[in-house]
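Review this chain:
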Amino acid sequence: MKDNENCFKELYLGIAPSRFHFLKFILEGYDGLTMLSSVNGKSGIVCLRYPAESERILFELLSNLAGKISRYS
């Protein structure tokens, strides 16, 4: 059996701090897709931990959400 730390990948993103809860709400709709953590709430740095087999779906979703969570929009 694999150690859980080795089963998950991590992705760090910079998002608009005001969009954290929006992103959290969307990701919760995809049960088991990823775990969202705030690294630095003021600057909008977040960490996504996800199973490797979910990478394609997660990246497609993030690509579609980019304009809604970007700190530059």
